[in-house]
């Protein structure tokens, strides 16, 4: 069974990128007036927050599994 891992990119009030969110949370923020819809130059949907927020992003690590050979 395939699992959809879609995420919506999020821009802070000043345009800096913050942690992506789920489509349902993005929809709730849009309906509440706390965000505006935006489109990237790659035609990807995202939101821009209209209220101040924290600019914290979690530390991420890229791991590559080469498998067994």
TrEMBL record:
Pfam family, one: RRXRR
Residue ranges of domain RRXRR in the record: 8-68
This protein's name: RRXRR domain-containing protein
Organism encoding this protein: uncultured Chloroflexia bacterium
């Amino acid at each position: 069974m395939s699992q959809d891992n879609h995420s919506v990119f999020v821009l802070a009030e000043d345009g800096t990128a913050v942690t992506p969110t789920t489509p349902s949370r993005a929809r709730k923020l849009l309906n509440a007036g706390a965000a505006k819809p935006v489109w990237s130059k790659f035609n990807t949907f995202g939101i821009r927050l209209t209220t101040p927020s924290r600019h914290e992003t979690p530390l991420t690590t890229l791991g590559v599994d080469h498998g067994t050979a």
